[in-house]
Amino acid sequence: MAMQSRNSSLRSMAKAQYNEQQHMGAAYGPYGQMTQAPQAQAMTIDDVIVRTVALVGATFVAALLTYGMVGSGDASSAGTAGMLMALGGLVSIVVIIFSIFKPVTNPFVAFAYGIGQGLVLGGFSAVMEAQFPGIVVNALVATILVFFGMLALYKFRILKNSPVFTKVIVGAGFGIAGLLLVNVVASLFGVNLGLFAAPGGDPTTLQWIIAIALTLWAAFSFILDFDMIEWSAQNGAPKKYAWAGAFGLTAGLIFLYWNLLRLLSYFQGE
User: Fold this and answer.
1) Residue 24 lies in a domain
2) Cβ–Cβ < 8 Å for 43, 14
């Protein structure tokens, strides 16, 4: 779910910022009648970094809340955590739908998504940690290593974005989104399509392939994010779009963590 919002947000950002720049001077009258040129502060890569750290921090704090509740073993706390997780999941879905149609440039919306996802992640991570001790730390470390590994590959131009690369990642993203949507709808009717193995189960070959493919897609899609953020900063995108870049990176990290946690649980099941 997160990856869908991320790509739509960053793709829409380029179009939206271009339209905004084209129409910025409309309220000032035609050339020769303007008393003062419009001023717009451009975003920088540092702006995106600061906002990303803030969003990831908020997600982490929210995750600690439900993680502690579920891990405490108290039935009342676990029940409260369940309600918070349900609320967080609902808020996340609303933000995802919103981001499909419009880039997330409002910090309150971005934080709502991060906190909502954090509440869900914390409770689920506590359940996984109880079943597989150490898996949460391993998933967190792996997420950080993959992110900075992809950043290094992009920074040194070992991996570059291109029209073909974009088409492949975006096309695969739509396919993944469709697959996840079908799986969710089927599960609501009590149908198990067998796409994902239960934690601790014995994954089939198809389930291994899907888990690895999702994890690889999550990693390589960061290249699109890095390229879009760099392009936006170089071309003077309005500062508010730094939130769209930060939202995209945060959603990407969350999606990567979800898939690494699932993949590591498969190894534990072996």
Assistant:
1) no
2) no
Domain membership flag for residue 31: no
User: Is the CB of residue 63 less than 8 Å from the CB of residue 118?
Assistant: yes
What lies within 8 Å, CB to CB, of 187 at 6+ separation is none
Range of the domain at 101: 2-11+41-269
Residue 22 domain-assigned (yes or no)? no
Whole-number Å distance between alpha carbons of 57 and 87 = 19
| pLDDT at site 101 | 84
67-118 confidence digits (pLDDT tens): 999 998 888 899 999 999 999 999 998 998 888 788 899 999 999 999 999 9
Q: How many of the other CB atoms lie within 10 Å of CB of 220?
A: 16
Reported as a single tens digit per residue, the pLDDT across 211-221 is 999 999 999 99
Query: What are the start-end ranges of the H helices in 24-104?
Result: 45-71, 75-101
Which residue, among 125, 123, 91, has the nearest Cα to 110 in the 3D structure? 91
Do 195 and 179 contact (CB within 8 A), yes or no? yes
User: Is the separation of the CB atoms in 100 and 113 below 8 Å?
Assistant: no
The residues that bridge with 42 in the sheet, in sequence order, are 238
Q: pLDDT-derived band of residue 26, with 50, 70 and 90 as boundaries?
A: very low
d(C-alpha 226, C-alpha 252), whole Å: 11
* CB-CB contact of 225 with 248 (8 Å): yes
Number of domains making up the chain: 1
Domain membership of residue 116 (yes or no) is yes
- Provide the token pair at 74: 């108290």
Length of the chain equals 270
CA–CA distance, 95 with 30 (Å, rounded to integer) = 38
Question: Model pTM?
Answer: 0.86
Q: What are phi and psi of 240, to 5 degrees?
A: -60, -25
